[in-house]
Amino acid sequence: MIWCRFEREGKVSHGRIVDDEVIEVDGSPINNPADTGVTYALGEVRLLAPIVPPMLYAAGPNHNGHVEGMAARRGAAPNYPKIPEPNFRSVHSLIGTEENIVIPADSAGAVQPEGQLAVVIGKHARQVASRDEALDCVFGYTIGNDVSERVWQGADRTMFRGKSCDTFKPLGPWIVTDLPYDSFRIIVRHNGEVWEDFTSADQIWDVPTWIIEMSKYTTMHPGDVLMMGTQGADGDMVPGDTIEVEISGIGTLRNYIVAE
Amino acid sequence: MIWCRFEREGKVSHGRIVDDEVIEVDGSPINNPADTGVTYALGEVRLLAPIVPPMLYAAGPNHNGHVEGMAARRGAAPNYPKIPEPNFRSVHSLIGTEENIVIPADSAGAVQPEGQLAVVIGKHARQVASRDEALDCVFGYTIGNDVSERVWQGADRTMFRGKSCDTFKPLGPWIVTDLPYDSFRIIVRHNGEVWEDFTSADQIWDVPTWIIEMSKYTTMHPGDVLMMGTQGADGDMVPGDTIEVEISGIGTLRNYIVAE
């Protein structure tokens, strides 16, 4: 199934997408909502980030290529992560597909994309004991872009400005259920040029491992979103640019760069 | 006004506290809810964390005494923060007063309190231009305990395990409105012994400054909670201990340490 969140005439709803139609439902997809009977053509609605998670987690370094690319840039040896530990992003920085990524006025400009698979949790998960149980906690998958201001990321004590400025977390265009976690192909395109092309099979730790390890310490809640890390280290995006993240079986998340 | 969130017979509600009574309301305090007409004696309800924030921010080092105490422990020079930048905590780690703080089974045991003033935001705040405007965004104040596992905090890449394990964020017992931000006295008591006694006047950056600076990059939302940092560097808490944070004009947040 394909689930979206959309705005139409000022009202925000969730819906199922079937062919080119959105079937409005009466709640969040994670709560098994009923259809309202109202349908729209997909072109008649404005898609939003497909869910507003209670917690937005980022797996951080989860592909060796990203660890190595970022280290090379600093002229340092790669510092591979030893355990899967997430960081947090602000849910207030979420935007949907086709929305603008706004570069803050005082940014030096090193605003870069990180195309990522995003996992939507469907159940309360605590002390998850097996890979099967972990995968049973997955509601579906969507696409994230963990937009990063590299000067602030490097200089600041926390990743607040570096990763969680308003509009820095595009998510969407929708959530797709019933897909295998280990064979997504993830492509990042900058103004149509391929900047990254990698697969979820190359993650340092895979989806069930992250859920098992995180759930040793925290209860994951329905609606939580875990972004699974990116490959490589990309260049700067500047106003006027278009950035796309395409994931096989899901679709394309497309955003536009503008200056504040 | 004093606002609480409580559970009674399995139902979770918000309420106003007047004398020893809880007057149930029909929504969240930040949405100006109406009374339902139902009242309970305060002793008849179980108090919960007084709000579930969309984002739970921690001001991080915001008292020189904490910067210096933590540095002395490492045998390093104090590294004073240069700008007010928050970190994030998991909203899933929130508990209320009188609840148990659970030390994870694989913790080496260095679980320590951080008594903190907690600011509850009442309005959307973005590009806040003045201190008056910032203070107008404050709904009220409550008490937080930024419980920290120091081994994980020091060793891990992120503060996930160090600061956001389940039960590591006691908040409460309630929210009090219409208090001055700059004269709170904050006392931390470990099994009745005073471990810290400090004032919000000694913060490195005060409440309006944090709101102004954060709102340059993020939209603060109604219900967001900002914990304002602690003084000093305290000792370990062990199973059987009681930890209290008292703040003048608000009350006392009391929790009990247990092993997983």
Please explain how this structure is put together.
Chain A is mostly beta strands and 260 residues long. The first copy, chain A, has 2 domains: 1-46, SH3 type barrels, CATH 2.30.30.370; 49-259, Fumarylacetoacetate hydrolase, domain 2, CATH 3.90.850.10. Helices cover 13% and strands 38% of the residues of chain A. Chain A is built from 5 helices and 19 strands. The first copy, chain A, has helices at 64-74, 131-136, 150-155, 160-163, 207-214; strands at residues 2-8, 11-18, 21-25, 35-41, 46-48, 56-58, 87-89, 94-95, 100-103, 111-112, 115-121, 138-145, 148-149, 169-176, 185-190, 193-199, 225-227, 242-247, 251-259. In chain A, the strands form 3 sheets. In chain A, strands 1, 2, 3, 4, 5, 6, 7, 8, 11, 12, 14 and 17 form a 12-stranded mixed β-sheet that branches. The model of chain A has no long low-confidence stretch (mean pLDDT 97). Chain A binds chain B through residues 54-55, 60, 81, 83, 85-93, 104, 106, 126, 156-158, 160-161, 164-166, 214, 216-221, and chain B through 54-55, 60, 81, 83, 85-93, 104, 106, 126, 156-158, 160-161, 164-166, 214, 216-221.
Write a brief structural summary:
2 copies of one chain form a homodimer. Chain A has 260 residues and is mainly β.
Q: How much strand of chain A?
A: 35-45%
Helix fraction of chain A by DSSP (H/I, runs of at least 4):
10-25%
Count every beta strand of chain A, where a strand is a DSSP E run of 2 or more residues.
Answer: 19
CA radius of gyration of chain A is 18 Å
Instruction: Classify the secondary structure makeup of chain A into a structural class.
Output: mainly beta
Whole-number total of structural domains of chain A = 2
How many separate helices of chain A? 5
Mean pLDDT of chain A: 97
Assign an overall shape of chain A: globular
Sheet having the most strands of chain A: 12 strands, mixed
CATH architecture label of the largest domain in chain A: Alpha-Beta Complex
Identify the quaternary structure here. Answer: homodimer
pLDDT below 50 for ≥5 consecutive residues: which ranges of chain A?
none
Name the CATH superfamily assignment of the largest domain in chain A: Fumarylacetoacetase-like, C-terminal domain
End-to-end span of chain A in angstroms? 37 Å
